[in-house]
Amino acid sequence: MKTYIHYPLFRFLMGLTPKEWPMPLFPEPYEATAAMEKTIEGRVPDFEKPEKDYRTMKAGDTIKFYAVNPATRKPLENLPELHFKVTFVHRYDTIEAMLEAEGLEKLVPGIPSVEEGAEVYLGFPGYPERVKKYGIYAIGLAPLGKFF
């Protein structure tokens, strides 16, 4: 007697089901991402928060970006969510190593130097401490649909 398994169930049980990762973005990087000027997202993990534990992120997962107010961190209702497929996940020990390997224009369009690019990332709350502890992840993005 043959035994059959439901393929989607098999993928789920084996941990192969893509995961959706919600991620907030400030308005400026949101606009650059929507315009596909920014094609790689750089994120510093926090292993104590499952939604920020990028060790488990893999190609094929999806990201749901939503714009937030920089002062309040509350979602901006007037801007739609952006949906992307993850094409790769690369870990780096330092921000500078990530910027040099992946390219400034793909991560921080319009920033002229690696030093200034690193300052952008170090300006985010908690990033200076967490990047030393956990490193930083470069996440490749492919749009799922058109924006605006």
How would you characterize this protein structure?
With 148 residues, the chain is α+β, with helices and mostly antiparallel strands. The chain has one domain (18-143): Roll (Archaeosine Trna-guanine Transglycosylase, Chain: A, domain 4). It has six helices and five strands; from the N terminus they run H-E-H-E-E-E-H-H-H-H-E. The protein has a five-stranded mixed beta sheet with strand order 1-3-4-5-2. The chain is globular, with a radius of gyration of 17 Å. The protein starts with 6 loop residues before the first helix and ends in a 5-residue tail after the last strand.
Helix content: 25-40%
DSSP helix count?
Answer: 6
CATH fold naming: Archaeosine Trna-guanine Transglycosylase, Chain: A, domain 4
Mean pLDDT: 91
CATH class category: Mainly Beta
What is the second-level CATH architecture?
A: Roll
The SSE string, one letter per element, is: HEHEEEHHHHE
Q: Unreliable segments (pLDDT under 50, ≥5 consecutive)?
A: none
The class by helix and strand makeup works out as alpha+beta
The N- to C-terminal Cα distance equals 54 Å
Portion in strands: 15-25%
Return the domain count.
Answer: 1
Biggest sheet strand order reads 1-3-4-5-2
Shape: globular
In CATH terms, the superfamily is Hypothetical protein
Largest sheet: 5 strands, mixed
Radius of gyration: 17 Å
Q: How many strand units? A: 5
